[in-house]
Specification:
mainly alpha; about 70 residues; Nudix hydrolase domain-containing protein; extended
Length: about 70
């Protein structure tokens, strides 16, 4: 969780839902491509990117992704 210094009364309330999926193929175009960026990273890279977001890092750590 975030520390009190990182949260204020004006902070939006957010509910995250995570779903693991298996990717069989990667399309060059997809419906949300103009709204979302796709980036494939290793577990270590994802963990580093989420270092300041403990609530998201917790979800990554609970996943079945290979840690190697």
């Amino acid at each position: 969780m975030r520390t009190p210094a990182q949260v204020s009364l004006k902070s939006p309330k957010v509910l995250y839902q995570f779903f693991e999926v298996r990717v069989d193929r990667e399309e060059s175009q997809w419906p949300e491509m103009h709204k979302r960026k796709r980036q494939w990273v290793t577990y270590a890279q994802a963990a580093a990117a989420l270092a300041t977001r403990p609530e998201l890092l917790d979800a990554l750590n609970r996943s079945s992704l290979k840690r190697s």
